[in-house]
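Lesson 9: reading folded outputs for more than one chain in a single document. The general rule is that every protein is listed as its sequence immediately followed by its structure tokens, and records are never interleaved. Here is the first one.
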Amino acid sequence: MFGFEPNSIAELNITGLGLGGWDSIRGIRAKFSRNSASFPDSVAICHNMWGLQFLADLMPAQRRIGLLHSDWTDLRPFLRSQQGLLDGVLCVSNALVELVAECLPEMANGNRIRLIPYPVDGLAEMPTREPLAKRPVVIGWVGRMQDEQKRVERLPALLEAFDAAKIDYRFELLGDGPKETWLRQQLPSDRTVFHGRKSGDEYYSVLSGWDFITSVSDYEGLPISMLEAFSAGVLPLCPAIGCGGDEYAAKLGPDFIWNAFDFGQAADRLKSQLAKPEDALGQARQAARELTTRHNENEYFRIFDEFVRHIADEPRITQERLAKRPFYFSDQLPFGLMTRIWPSGCYRRND
């Protein structure tokens, strides 16, 4: 069942609820209730546990498992609001595993929290690159061009630090968004390339031309774009924000991480990498590529299936029947409005 997908596919037993910002929690519950009976005695997989606080009592599942893909500003209180609603949680990074164990102590026993590697369709072979001594270093960025989470308003300061360090660079961006026009005005036109949104071979063609990938985000889970870049031999220039990307960058060496958001240090770290022999950079590229080895579809589904069977065999730690949700005036408000004026109201439980 997909909350915000409008389409249903009967032959695949997929139901799209077609939710939008104008739906209230009361309306969302009504739509969910009309379809939940189609999945009796199931193991429910709740991606990012969205809406579980106000939908769990309508879910006729033998077990409920969360699959945590992302990190965000209010994740800690959000996770604490899930206490007693989940029998197990899969996480895409070790940082998220640790956070879930802290916020949901009932999961501490019985191996109820597990790391699951994102599946990534990487490049079959690492592209060859011209030596950096003969050209500018190419630094890339991928994402939605917006202030929320991605904090793209920081990019001009990062490039100013590269300029101050007298680094010969070209900066390339993949993606689009509401801040694109502003970025085109703020970033140096002679050193910046806007590729727009790309997919498939075109996407990897751009990645293959990069030497480093960077970010200025406030938070991430485990950035898929970083893993995809690793498969092309692209090296990280990663801010330390406590996400899965930090962990992967640290495996390659301390000079691949910089203190968020010390842009001068980012430039110094990049400069120290550029001073290394080409052979050393080549070895680092190969090591980055090897970090993606386990990020394949077979491994993802092996761990997923194994964990679901494990949780199904373990004693249930959630209540089989939850009390019906009482009347809350806030449940009548459009959900899009609620997320702006009272985000914690979206986590309100039946307690």
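And here is the second record, again sequence then tokens.
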Amino acid sequence: MLLPKESRDLRKSYKRLGIFILIVFILDVFICFLFFKYTNMHPVLNGFIIICITAILYLLFLAICAKIDKKKKEKLEKSGKKDPFTKN
């Protein structure tokens, strides 16, 4: 059984990941279309390039999310207000 805070964090991470996957999927489809239409690149090389681009974007996404979470936590601590969803 998940605690309410864990459940909220899990839903937030799923929502972020879903938005990321949607955006990256559209970007990858566009890049694949450009590669197939305008270059004579081998499909395996095309797939490898797409995988590399997606991995780099995911690492960038993780870094941005970590910074956002850190700033939110610092802002909450600085304001002196406590999280209304915690029991303390």
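What the second record shows: Residues 9 and 62 are 15 Å apart (CA to CA).
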